[in-house]
Specification:
mainly beta, 4-stranded antiparallel β-sheet
């Protein structure tokens, strides 16, 4: 594999990218939203917000992006965006769509869920530390966060804290082929 730089058309920091409906969507600081059909040529889109947008996902025919101050924006085409009410002012750091649900996680242990990306419900995580990443695999949602926190849920509603072998911040989690991989501070890798 060879990599070649592409011109995004912005100098803003970019934090998340997703693909759906034949479109890439990238998000970043100061409300930055970009879209591209091929990953080479990018167009700036109007978000209508100044808060950082930190992560993006696509599912159920809709793009969902999340960010600071509980901001959530949605789009069916990656071009026109609409703000939706998240029910929280906590910063939202991660979002995924799997098994028929959107799950967003963030500051103060905040977890919110939605089946359509528009209407969101606050869930109880049982923790007050930051949650950064979220994924789904082996019939479980998994979220990770500060101080080595790992939580799991079979339905996205009830969450259980799991024991981890680290107190390092854990920033992301991914699932493939029956393996859940968690990464974090100080080169932390956990399976």
């Amino acid at each position: 594999i060879s990599w070649s730089p592409k011109n995004s058309g912005t100098t803003k920091r970019l934090y998340g990218v997703t693909f759906g409906n034949n479109t890439f969507v990238a998000v970043g600081e100061s409300g930055t939203l970009l879209s591209s059909e091929d990953g080479s040529y990018w167009t700036s889109r109007t978000s209508g917000i100044t808060q950082y947008i930190l992560q993006a996902t696509y599912g159920n025919g809709i793009f969902v992006v999340v960010g600071n101050s509980g901001k959530i924006l949605t789009s069916t085409d990656g071009i026109s965006w609409t703000s939706t009410t998240s029910g929280t002012t906590s910063h939202l750091q991660g979002v995924t769509y799997e098994a028929g649900k959107f799950i967003a996680v963030g500051q103060s242990g905040r977890i919110i869920t939605s089946t359509d990306g528009i209407s969101w419900t606050l869930r109880t995580s049982g923790i007050s530390t930051y949650l950064f990443g979220v994924t789904y695999g082996n019939n479980n949602y998994v979220t990770v966060g500060a101080s080595g926190k790992i939580l799991t849920s079979q339905d996205g509603t009830s969450w259980t804290t799991r024991t981890s072998s680290t107190s390092n911040n854990l920033y992301d989690v991914s699932f493939y082929n029956n393996i859940v991989l968690v990464i974090g501070n100080s080169g932390s890798f956990m399976t």
